[in-house]
Design goal:
It is built from 16 helices and 16 strands. A hairpin with a 5-residue loop joins strand 1 and strand 2 (54-59). By secondary structure, it is α+β, with helices and mostly antiparallel strands. It is elongated. Helices cover 34% and strands 19% of the residues. The longest helix has 24 residues, at 418-441. The chain folds into two domains: 11-319, Histidine kinase-like ATPase, C-terminal domain (Heat Shock Protein 90, 2-Layer Sandwich), CATH 3.30.565.10; 359-477, 3-Layer(aba) Sandwich (Endonuclease, Chain A). Helix 2 runs parallel beside helix 12 (266-280) and helix 14 packs across helix 16. The strands form three sheets. It has an eight-stranded mixed β-sheet. Strands 9, 10, 11 and 12 form a four-stranded antiparallel β-sheet that branches. A four-stranded mixed β-sheet has the order 13-14-15-16. It binds adenosine-5'-diphosphate and magnesium ion.
């Protein structure tokens, strides 16, 4: 008997990452979610112009030590379903507990959708920096096994060491194309795999992926410039994570085109719009709980030479406070019974008491009692809320405030703007009377159920039964010509 494990092709990374991601903005949001999960207060996507356009997604979250980077970032899949432990106090960076956004343990692979080349740099408080260099195109080779690809991981404590050692990291990366004398078996597997891939691409008249990986001149790609804005780099924070990207996806490059002939191109403006739409509401701007909103700041900055311009930021978006200036506001919630309770601002005035709106109670009761009815018949005067054709009956469910329910506490008079309200109510009352006359002319019985009468279900049932009985009797005694 044998005991054999699964093997994964290198392509698995491509399937789980780039191919799962709808578009570049969605990929950015996956990385922002990781920053959120790492209790970052700030995350930004920077896009840099230049000979080789680049980008960086930088946060000030708790970051990863070398062991964590190797044990978490470089391990596909998740154990978080099992170990649903909250982040430790020290990891939370003084922030209240957050609901974890990460789920499947593949989110970080989406950075392959943003650019071919990634330099991940991360740092935990009072630990060294850890950097890894990845060329996602390695994972396009269908003849390679996942095990055969190994990535340069470099630990350092002094900023300057990173750029100095980029060449060395690149050499390790290129080892995935050529193999290494120290492991001749692997060298042969790798060489075979790239030879086969080259042949396949040549047959399909495609450019050689191997060659485009070889052609990268790493010292021209990643520069101090992309790191400078990262707070763990410039010293504003002692922890965080950044992913530098090159070989950018079209959608990211489109963010650079703000002037010149390209700026008006449809595909460019489309990409910019999608990016804005997907990412401007990354957190719900209408969430009233300040700690969810205010403690997580995200932004997209576009750099032309040394000048940043803001493409998007949650600081300046429409949020809850912008509503305060509106003329009409309905601020409340609808409960399981379908009853609305909350505050209402109409014509610039907050109505004093809390209001509730429960028009569907009447429908539900009628339905339960087995009556057949129709809603809002626009062919009848006043489009009655409910009509029961069989009984020639129209029922209006009136709000006590708007329709001035006589003697009802809900029909209070607003304190200011008296004249305005008086006219408004007068118009409502006149309209109600007109509807009443027209319905009578058409031989319909009109009944009003006041909002306050719908509160008590028992009373409502009795009231409806009486109304219907009454309508039935008057229908029988009147002439038989009701237009149903
Ligand atoms: N910005 C980051 N800061 C700190 N840790 C991170 C960051 N991004 C990813 N990680 C680590 O890598 C793991 C894998 O991330 P990901 O692939 O998005 O899967 P998931 O979020 O579902 O766990 C995370 O659980 C986290 O431990
Ligand atoms: Mg995630």
């Amino acid at each position: 008997m044998d005991s054999i494990s699964f093997k994964a092709r290198a392509r698995t990374i491509d399937h789980l990452g780039r191919e799962q991601i709808a578009d570049a903005p969605t990929a950015v949001s996956e990385l922002w979610k990781n920053s959120y999960d790492a209790y970052a207060r700030n995350v930004a996507l920077h896009v840099f112009d230049g000979e080789i356009p680049t980008a960086a997604i930088s946060d000030d979250g708790h970051g990863m030590s070398r062991d964590e980077f190797v044990g978490r970032w470089l391990v596909i899949g998740t154990d978080s379903k099992l170990s649903e432990t909250e982040a430790s106090e020290s990891d939370r960076n003084g922030l209240p507990a957050r609901i974890r956004q990460g789920q499947k343990g593949i989110g970080r692979l989406s950075c392959a959708a943003l650019g071919h080349l990634a330099l991940v740099v991360t740092k935990r408080a009072s630990k060294s920096f850890v950097a890894a260099l990845i060329d996602w195109r390695l994972f396009e080779n269908p003849y390679l096994l996942l095990d055969d690809i190994s990535l340069p991981v470099f630990e350092f404590s002094n900023n300057e060491q990173l750029l100095k050692n980029l060449g060395g990291m690149r050499d390790v990366l290129i080892g995935n194309l050529w193999g290494h004398e120290s492991n001749l078996e692997r060298k042969k597997r790798i060489e075979d795999a790239w030879r086969q891939f080259d042949e396949l691409e040549a047959r399909q008249s495609r450019d050689s992926t191997r060659r485009s990986i070889e052609e990268v001149i790493i010292s021209d790609v990643f520069l101090e410039r992309q790191l400078e804005t990262w707070s763990a780099w410039n010293g504003k924070a002692d922890h965080g994570t950044t992913v530098l990207l090159a070989g950018l996806n079209f959608d990211l490059e489109a963010l650079l085109a703000i002037e010149g002939p390209d700026a008006q191109d449809d595909t460019v403006t489309g990409a910019r719009r999608r990016c804005f739409q997907t990412l401007s509401s990354f957190t719900d701007p209408f969430n009233k709980l300040p700690n969810i909103q205010n403690e997580f700041h995200y932004a997209i900055d576009i750099w032309h030479r040394d000048d940043p311009s803001s493409f998007l930021s949650n600081e300046r978006e429409l949020d809850y406070s912008n509503f305060d200036v509106l003329e009409h506001i309905v601020d409340g919630s609808v409960d399981e019974e379908g009853v609305f309770r909350g505050r209402i601002k109409a014509f610039g005035e907050w109505l004093d008491a809390e209001r509730s709106v429960e028009p569907i109670r009447v429908r539900r009761v009628l339905h339960r009692l087995g009556y057949r009815f129709r809603l809002h018949r626009s062919d009848l005067p006043g489009s009655p809320d409910i009509t029961l054709p069989k009984y020639g009956l129209c029922i209006f469910v009136h709000g006590c405030f708007w329709h001035r329910h006589a003697g009802c506490s809900r029909a209070s008079n607003p304190a200011s703007n008296k004249k305005f309200w008086a006219t408004k109510f007068d118009t409502n009352r006149k309209r109600d009377r007109k509807v009443q006359r027209e319905l009578a002319r058409l031989r319909w019985t009109k009944e009003v159920i006041w909002e306050c009468e719908t509160r008590d279900p028992e009373k409502l049932i009795r009231r409806l039964e009486r109304i219907i009985l009454h309508a039935e009797v008057s229908l029988k005694t009147a002439s038989p010509s009701v237009a149903a």
